[in-house]
Structure to design on (152 residues):
């Protein structure tokens, strides 16, 4: 059976990024750090898990950068988790609309409360909930629920 593992390309900050990501996302850890055989003091690859999913961080140099065309989504249980993840991942990065942000390493993230998905699945309230979400930066569960309540 094949194994598919997303590999994130960094200039030199792969270990630093992996340590940040594993400190933010629950059930996460750095699994392995491999050094460059040409320069044993330099980290080449970092294998890490985010909520049990395996990723690789490659310190490949400055040739490539990240794009919002690929993002990592964190589904959050409640507003406290949204706030915590948003704060940690946006620090030094850039906050965007609709729950999106770019972290200090250029990786795009979607910080999404589970409640948003539940509300969007309800056709009776999906349209006003979507309209409310489109006006937000960091997603606000009470604001989304208020939009649903008005429609109900």
């Amino acid at each position: 059976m094949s194994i598919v593992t997303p590999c994130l390309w960094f200039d030199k900050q792969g270990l630093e990024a992996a340590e940040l990501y594993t400190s933010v996302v629950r059930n996460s850890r750095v699994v392995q750090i491999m050094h460059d055989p040409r320069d044993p003091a330099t980290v080449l690859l970092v294998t890490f898990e985010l909520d049990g999913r395996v990723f690789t961080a490659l310190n490949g140099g400055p040739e490539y950068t990240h794009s919002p065309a690929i993002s990592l989504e964190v589904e959050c249980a409640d507003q406290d988790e949204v706030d915590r993840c948003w704060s940690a991942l946006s620090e030094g990065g850039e906050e965007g609309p609709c729950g999106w942000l770019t972290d200090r390493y250029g990786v795009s993230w979607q910080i999404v409360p589970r409640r948003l998905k539940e509300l969007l699945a309800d056709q009776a309230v999906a349209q006003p909930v979507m309209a409310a979400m489109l006006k937000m930066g960091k997603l606000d569960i009470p604001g989304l629920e208020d939009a649903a309540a008005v429609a109900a």
Observations:
- The longest strand covers residues 39-50.
- The chain is about 35% helix and 30% strand.
- The mean pLDDT is 97.
